[in-house]
Amino acid sequence: MPATDFGTSEGLNEPARKRHAKLFHRKTRTGCQRCRIRRVKCDEGKPICSNCKRLGLVCGYAQVAAAPGDTSGCTWEKKKQSEPESMESESRRKLELELFYHYSTETGKSIAIGESTQDIWGPIMCQAALRSDAVLNSICLLSALHKAHKEKISGTRELIDVEKCTSTYLHLALNAHHKDLSHLTADNIDYACLASSAFRIYDFHRLQNRALKPYAPPVDWLRMTGATHVVFLRARELARENPESVGWKMTSGAFYVVEERQKLQHSEELIHLLDYREPLERTEAWSDETHLVYSTAISVVGAIWRFRHAQELCPEMHLRLLILPMLLDDEFVAYVEERRPRALAILVHYFVMLRWLSKMWYIGDAGHREAWAVLQELPTEWQGLLSEPIGMLESS
Fold it and tell me: In CATH, which superfamily holds the domain spanning 27-62?
């Protein structure tokens, strides 16, 4: 390459090459580990930065060693820099201990269905939390919601930031749960069953507090709660040789209901909802597949509806009310999403019966609210088929 002649007028008159300014990026030493690995700017939000929250990643911070010659590496400076994170960690540990204690003494009992599930929601859940992040964070999530409910009832001031706790522990629990689901084994299936059941309680709580105007069918609730079915199916396979496992015990109570569903038992309770005569036939196209989807749905809901004249709530009815979304076909949920009147009419009967669980803190008046909201959406020609549930709502 020829050298430039700086000793001649030709070299002096040659226009100088324009150099592009070199961009320097100051490396952050305090961003979360995920953002530092991905080399993106971190807003250093605690406990979850905005990038990790948006992408659904596990967010964590680690203290970085000082660079050579960095005077901030002295003991006093290190102490000063780590104090906010240390104080936050200590505060979070105390909060989690408080939530864990509240769950072990109060929340677990409030969720259990009679004596048969006291151990599962009590000591078994607490012991599993010592080994599973998904279960531990699920416990913190439910405990925070239960504490907030009790404080609201008693009129006392909220001692914890419920919205922040819910967001944080739901995020952490889901991340850990999804890791388990990606590789289910006999070693972690119990934890997956416990966490899935905890999420079902959380989903009922959301149903209780969702806005109903403008009305939209509770499709997300049906799908999220129904997702537990996939975990339970896998648990039956993995725990088959270990009948003493938590997964086997939790699924045993539900699977005789699944067998009933397959045989279309109890469909006679709501057989009138399969009426396809004028003017009902104008509301949707009909086929053998459509008939089977609706027959299965009225069998599942009919198994609950047959208890409508009961004098008190029995454990079997309680169980059926909680697991119903697990038993509905995806096609039926799609019909609900399309607001097909027949699907909504079937759902009304379930929500009327859900009022039996109104004393459960995580359900409250969800059944009553949802039933009336659905009725207001149904065409006039369907009201005649719903005289009994309407009468039950008006008399309550």
Answer: Zn(2)-C6 fungal-type DNA-binding domain (4.10.240.10)
